[in-house]
């Protein structure tokens, strides 16, 4: 596995956040004119009810630290190993970058569209993601590693995605974010001795924000059903696999984080995948077959390839570059084989909205 740079300063934390790799969260921009053409009238009742929930802002007071927060950090987190400390800091930086990515995207859509439905939604979601990112950044500041979010916005590369790609990827990101956070919350709820940092106490209501954001994109796609049929189903399959594979590889590069919480990375990931599969049936006509042995084998193969690519990068030079290229081809071949595995197909339910019941 690649030797990781020690994160011991704000500069190094910022360098980590600004990285653009296959596994790092990205910043996005999109076609604002196409966003303006979205029509929510087929689901007007459901849409207005959802916006009323945002307006109610039931998490307005959630992201405020208690007086005991710093004391718990000093007492509990000081006991973890230096290697575990680094994994946790990488987790915080990745999480902050992901949340801030949503904040930037939603805010840019808000500023650049005239469609009142989309404009109002994006204002609410940018508000939520800003709170999430700022709350994580406070925890980084506890270690003297706070990230200048304005500088991050200016310096990190942006990726252009068509609106439909934004819908597929962001819907999945929000729903899998819910599944990740609620699975960790349930584990630490049963095993409070494994809660090595107080930020996990905020995960239950936090993940409900993630769930509601996903509901918003579900309504957008169900109100515009052309996004869910024909050739677009192939894109849905692509994003399902890309999101699951990225999570699997990223999580297996941080095994100590899960072990510290009493979890095992593979079991945790598949528990999250199963929750996400059940949720996405509200909007996607296909889901991945998690019980296919070839699927598990393929994900494990992708992780192995990533470790070999990291080793080749650390090696450097011409030989290292050639090795990385060879492993990149192997990774692409493995991804393609996974993509063409049989998927599960199902009818979309009449009732679109779901409750965060896991």
Written account of the structure:
It contains 14 helices and 4 strands. It has 358 residues and is mainly α. It has a domain of 209 residues. The strands form 2 sheets. It has a two-stranded parallel sheet with strand order 1-2. A two-stranded antiparallel ribbon has the order 3-4.
What is this structure's SSE topology?
Blueprint lengths: L9 H9 L8 E3 L2 H5 L7 H13 L12 H8 L5 H31 L3 H27 L6 H7 L2 E3 L2 H28 L12 H21 L8 H21 L2 H6 L4 H16 L5 E3 L4 H23 L1 H23 L3 E3 L13
Parallel strand pairs: 1-2
Antiparallel strand pairs: 3-4
Helix pairs in contact: 1-5, 3-6, 5-6, 6-9, 8-9, 8-10, 8-12, 10-12, 10-13, 13-14
What labels would you give this structure?
single chain; 358 residues; 3% strand; globular
In short:
With 358 residues, the protein is mostly helical. It has 14 helices and four strands.
In angstroms, what is the radius of gyration? 20 Å
Distance between termini? 34 Å
Biggest sheet strand order reads 1-2
| Basic shape | globular
Question: How many strand elements?
Answer: 4
Low-confidence stretches: none
